[in-house]
Amino acid sequence: MNEQDRITAIQTIVDRVSSWQDGATEGTVEDELRRGADEVGVELGEDEIRRLADVIQDRHRTVSAAEVLAGD
Asked: Could you give the number of structural domains in the chain?
């Protein structure tokens, strides 16, 4: 899987989790990100999961996985 495909897959996971996790605890959001990554076969490091979960919790709007993970 190339980097663009990886980001696209992660964005799909982030969109799914963001759409129904409004108000969920950070631990729940992290668990759902892990579950989604496992389902699509994308490896996400713990730091990446934490950063994505933080942004999902903080921004109650669209989250760009590419922006959050930029620089990795």
From this structure: 1
Alpha helices per DSSP H over 1-72: 3-20, 26-40, 46-58, 65-69
Per-residue confidence in pLDDT tens, the chain, 72 aa: 899 999 999 999 999 998 877 677 778 999 999 999 999 999 999 999 999 999 988 876 789 999 999 966
Give the sign of the dihedral formed by CA 40, CA 16, CA 71, CA 57: negative
- Rounded Cα distance between 23 and 48, Å, is 20
**Closest C-alpha to 10, from 55, 50, 41:** 41
Structural domain harbouring 59: 3-69
